[in-house]
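Sample intake — Apolipoprotein acyltransferase
Collected from: Actibacterium pelagium
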Amino acid sequence: MIFYAATFIGAVYGAFLAKRRGGKGLDMLQYAAGFGILFAIIGLFITLGINRFG
């Protein structure tokens, strides 16, 4: 569940960041995809850590 939440939060944050920097629709989409993937990887490692040590 952490994986999906982190992916969604990363995508929303990426779109917000692109919009704040003056980006158009495709810029927002690219930032959302990039940050979504980054946050998904972080969420995956957090989930694995919790399952392994928790």
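Post-analysis note: Residues 25-53 form the longest helix (29 residues).
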